[in-house]
Amino acid sequence: MSITSDLIRGHTETIILAHLDKRDSYGYQINKDIQQKTGGAYELKEATLYSAFRRLESADYIRSYWGDQDTGARRRYYSITTIGRALLEQNKEDWEVAKKLIDSLL
Amino acid sequence: MKESIKDHVAQLFASAPKTRRSWELQDEICANLCERYDDLIAEGEEPYAAYQKVINGIGDADELIATLNERDVLNPRWEQSQRQKSAILVSVAVMLYILSLVPVIIMQNAYSTVIMFIITAAATGLLVYNGASKPKYEKADQTMVEEFKQWTQDKGKSRSITGAIHSTIWSVAVMLYLILGLALNLWHPGWIIFPLTAVVGQLINMIRVYREGDDR
Q1: Could you tell me if B25 and A47 are in contact, meaning their C-beta atoms sit under 8 angstroms apart?
Q2: Is residue A48 within 8 Å of B61, Cβ to Cβ?
Q3: I need a surface site. Which of A31, B4, B40, B135 has the fewest CB within 10 A?
Q4: A60-74, A89-103, B91-105: which is most confident
Q5: Which residues contact B28 (CB under 8 A, 6 or more apart)?
Q6: Is A47 at the interface with chain B, CB within 8 A?
Q7: Which chain B residue has the Cα nearest residue A28?
Q8: What number is the average pLDDT over the span B30-38?
Q9: Any idea where the domains of chain A sit in the sequence?
């Protein structure tokens, strides 16, 4: 998993944006979702996830808020912003272009 | 076992600055790790195995901690430039307030009053912008004193913004009334502007209270 995880790590931000585009979420939920979707093949490290959160939030692509929890521990939820959505679309396009390019070269 | 998770995270954060952002991130990571631990236990994992999986899933936290420190290192320079910008805005605003009386003295007619209000509105606008773009006060530590300082600044800021907004809309209202009256002789229906402005002012208050409730 070492080579592929390096390749995928560059797309962490886009993956997060794509997840938040569908609905607001919190850290662990995104992790769980990725594990389920990839059938356990890819595991996103917490440190990578949180670094991405901070980068995205400081550039205003996402914003965060504290959710209400009855169990007493409050969760930090993230939601995507308008420019976050624009970035997501841009990144998706870039990925399509890159995919075609590399496929044609290999 | 969950205590061990919290201890482990606390250890990772040992070299992190003691700021609110740091504590919040630590809380968030702990909460998420604990939830993951619960899920693993529910799937039938042994406590220690689950603990190991959770810890191994963290990855390299050094970069994350480094970014927490980064902001504070760059802070003094950034704060300095913010302070200078703020000083310029305030000086220009005060200058405009003083200059706004010049047309009244020189021209001595009704339009000069209108010009005076236009200049006053511009000055007030600058002050509102200045107040709104002040950097947030970051708590130095978790003590009650710092929490209180931050709360005071937030309250003060919102109150000064509201005050500035209100004085702006009232200046605009008077200006519009004078224009309607002097230029169009509409003194009679024109007075409606004032009750309208009062309503707008209340709406703004409502919006502020609603938004402040949301921030909680």
Answers
A1: no
A2: no
A3: B135
A4: A89-103
A5: A27, A50, A75, A76
A6: yes
A7: B32
A8: 89
A9: 2-105
pTM, two decimals, is 0.54
Nearest chain B residue (CA) to A29 = B32
∠ at Cα B77 (B161, B94), nearest 5°? 35
Cβ separation of A51 and B64 shorter than 8 Å?
Answer: yes
Residue whose C-alpha is closest to residue B89's, from B127, B135, B118, B133: B127
- Nearest residue on chain A to B58, alpha-carbon basis: A46
Span between the terminal Cα atoms of chain A, in Å: 21
Rounded CA separation B47/B30 (Å): 16
Which ipTM score applies to this complex? Answer: 0.81
- What span, in angstroms and rounded, lies between the C-alpha atoms of A81 and B102? 46
Per-residue confidence (pLDDT) for residue A83, from 0 to 100? 92
d(CA B22, CA B28): 10
The CB-side HSE value for B20 (13 A sphere, CA atoms) comes to 10
**Could you give the 3-state DSSP secondary structure of residue B137?**
coil
The whole-angstrom separation of Cα B36 and Cα B57 is 10
* Interchain proximity B32–A32, CB inside 8 Å: no
Amino acid at B129: Y
Residue-wise pLDDT for B180-200, tens only, equals 887 778 778 888 888 888 898
Q: Which of B178, B169, B161, B179 has the alpha carbon at shortest distance from B199? A: B169
- CATH 1.10.10.10 assigned to A2-105: yes
